[in-house]
Specification:
Helix content is 7%, strand content 56%. It is mostly beta strands. It has one domain. A hairpin with a 2-residue loop joins strand 5 and strand 6. The protein is globular.
């Protein structure tokens, strides 16, 4: 992307030092991801459904990685709204093997799978707003931890609030990725071997 987009959230006090203590182990152990943006950034006010969905992958490999704290507004079935803190992760280009996404719908579990059989899922301009992230191993190259979120410079072109906690790396590989995700979007999302059905959770 030629111009750096700003990903500013509505205010609501976040104690960034405390957030860093909680988020950093998740970032260093898991890393990040699976949420995405067609424009490279999402509008300042984001409203999401009132439930997270589960995303897993045997491995995620990506180049151009950024991560910082943010928040989304979730809508309840009774019309109420709640602000949720999220880990915002952005990747310029990524592949995922054995991707699985599952979410509960009207008492049933909707399950999507893709990227098996030697043909991984590919995605560009990947951005994820996740409540939690884990993995058995994460590897970063040329990582910078504690960067001002408003000054991130990796190719995704996404930044957080100036003065906030951020990190970035040239590339990232996460094994046994698992994340509880509020929002996912992407510039392109190619799903070889796509299967969508009702079944068990990932």
């Amino acid at each position: 992307m030629s111009a750096k987009s700003s990903r500013l959230r509505p205010t609501g006090r976040v104690k960034w030092r405390r957030f860093a203590i909680v988020a950093l182990p998740a970032a260093a152990i898991a890393g990040v991801l699976i949420g995405l943006t067609a424009e490279g950034a999402i509008a300042a006010s984001i409203s999401v459904s009132g439930q997270e969905f589960l995303v897993t992958a045997d491995q995620l490999s990506g180049t151009g990685f950024e991560q910082f704290g943010g928040q989304v507004t979730s809508d309840g079935t009774d019309g109420s709204q709640a602000t949720q803190p999220v880990i915002v992760s952005a990747i310029n280009s990524a592949t995922l093997t054995n991707l699985c996404q599952s979410v509960s719908v009207a008492g049933f579990t909707l399950r999507l799978t893709a990227g098996g059989g030697g043909s991984p899922v590919s995605v560009s301009n990947l951005i994820v707003d996740a409540g939690s992230i884990s993995g058995s191993q994460a590897q970063f190259h040329n990582i910078s931890i504690g960067t001002d979120a408003g000054t991130l410079t990796e190719d995704p072109g996404v930044t957080g609030t100036s003065g906030g906690f951020g990190e970035q790396a040239d590339d990232v590989t996460i094994t046994d990725l698992r994340q509880d995700t509020w929002l996912t979007t992407a510039g392109t999302f190619t799903l070889p071997g796509l299967s969508l059905s009702f079944g068990s959770s990932c």
